[in-house]
Amino acid sequence: MSKRKNPSDNNNLNADFCEFLMELSDYEKNVSRNIHKFNAYKKAASVLASHSKRIQSGEEAKKLNGIGEKISKKIDEFLNTGKLKKLDDIHNDENAQIISLLTRVSGIGPVKAADLLNMGIKSIEDLRNNKNKLNHHQIIGLKYFEDFEKMIPRSEVRELENVITKEIKNLDPQFTITICGSYRRGRSESGDIDAQVTHPTLKLGDNKNKCHEKLLKNIIMALKGCITDVISMGETKFMGVCRLSNNHPFRRLDIRLIPKEQYYCAVLYFTGSDVFNKNMRSHALEKSFTLNEYSLRPIGVTGIPGEPVQIESEEEIFDYIDYPYQKPEERNM
Ligand code: 8DG
Ligand code: CA
Ligand code: CA
């Protein structure tokens, strides 16, 4: 079983439905590669997880936004029989099981997993005997396969946050560091660590003189006490592995260096959850704004986005699009 959390930590009265919906969504993402169905199942799980009542029938579920005929039928089938034929079929499909397993390796996506299966690779052990078929990221993913499957307790993310913040501030106290993702949403455990870093002098376009790249290299150098492997190192994005001490598992760490004017849109985006982001983006569109990880831009009558709005805080983004402010802990959908 891959590490999968319910959309909500606790108090989820519909957790069993959410569990099968999340499993179906993983299947659609990794095996059938049907992004529409993937999104539909995830959205349904999210809606059910935050519903304050135990759902008693498919018909009742169908009244919720995001649950249609097909999912409502699955809920009835699950209530009546305690299982789902579709999931049973998936469990009995050897190829589907192999693709699901291979995609649990960091760096192996659905297409690569299917390729590997076509080459006769069916297990983690097969992968270990065929490293020549893997790229650098996938080799690191395989090397730490067991550790990367372990969730990171909140206390450990906090300790890593302290180390990372201390070392980067040592470089220059004007750096701002925000650990986003599930940690910022207050979750009790996280899959990886998503760090965003900015500096007041960091301007868009600076990278023409390789300024970002040098800064990011300095940051990674400063963190050599806890960073153990580099997966990739771009101009603004580091992907790698860190470890708090010899007694801790190896953890996936991403660090992004972001110009000040894009910082709050990035922090908002990388805080998630992805379902929350999707909802907020479609609300923005209703208000004639386009929102992404870089900027918030008004859409004119021509339908073409204008210049980015200047943003000084996360709250301002909510204000601009008339969306009630939600604290990070309220974005766990
Ligand atoms: P986790 O690591 O504890 O499993 O949860 P997470 O922190 O919420 O997920 P993540 O995969 O690390 O992604 C961090 C945030 O990035 C996520 O909460 C929202 C944003 N995000 C999207 N879409 C996508 C996407 O397609 N891929 C990734 N990696 N992040 C995305 O909104
Ligand atoms: Ca994360
Ligand atoms: Ca991440």
TrEMBL record:
Pfam families linked to this entry: DNA_pol_B_palm, DNA_pol_B_thumb, DNA_pol_lambd_f, HHH_8
EC number(s) reported in the record: 2.7.7.7
InterPro entries: DNA-dir_DNA_pol_X, DNA_pol_B_palm_palm, DNA_pol_lambd_fingers_domain, DNA_pol_lamdba_lyase_dom_sf, DNA_Pol_thumb_sf, DNA_pol_X, DNA_pol_X_beta-like, HHH_MUS81
Chief subcellular location: cytoplasm
Subcellular location: Cytoplasm; Nucleus
Helix-hairpin-helix DNA-binding motif class domain location: 59-78, 100-119
Keywords carried by this UniProt record: Cytoplasm, DNA damage, DNA repair, DNA replication, DNA synthesis, DNA-binding, DNA-directed DNA polymerase, Lyase, Magnesium, Metal-binding, Methylation, Nucleotidyltransferase, Nucleus, Sodium, Transferase, Ubl conjugation
Domain DNA-directed DNA polymerase X, chain residue ranges per copy: 12-332
SMART domains hit by this protein: HhH1, POLXc
Catalytic activity, as annotated: DNA(n) + a 2'-deoxyribonucleoside 5'-triphosphate = DNA(n+1) + diphosphate; a 5'-end 2'-deoxyribose-2'-deoxyribonucleotide-DNA = (2E,4S)-4-hydroxypenten-2-al-5-phosphate + a 5'-end 5'-phospho-2'-deoxyribonucleoside-DNA + H(+); 2'-deoxyribonucleotide-(2'-deoxyribose 5'-phosphate)-2'-deoxyribonucleotide-DNA = a 3'-end 2'-deoxyribonucleotide-(2,3-dehydro-2,3-deoxyribose 5'-phosphate)-DNA + a 5'-end 5'-phospho-2'-deoxyribonucleoside-DNA + H(+)
Superkingdom, taxonomy of origin: Eukaryota
Cofactor(s) essential for the protein: Mg(2+)
Residues annotated as the enzyme's active site: 74
SUPFAM superfamilies hit by this protein: DNA polymerase beta, N-terminal domain-like (SSF47802), Nucleotidyltransferase (SSF81301), PsbU/PolX domain-like (SSF81585)
Family from the record: Belongs to the DNA polymerase type-X family.
UniProt function note: DNA polymerase that functions in several pathways of DNA repair. Involved in base excision repair (BER) responsible for repair of lesions that give rise to abasic (AP) sites in DNA. Also contributes to DNA double-strand break repair by non-homologous end joining and homologous recombination. Has both template-dependent and template-independent (terminal transferase) DNA polymerase activities. Has also a 5'-deoxyribose-5-phosphate lyase (dRP lyase) activity.
This protein's name: DNA polymerase
Gene: LOC113391980
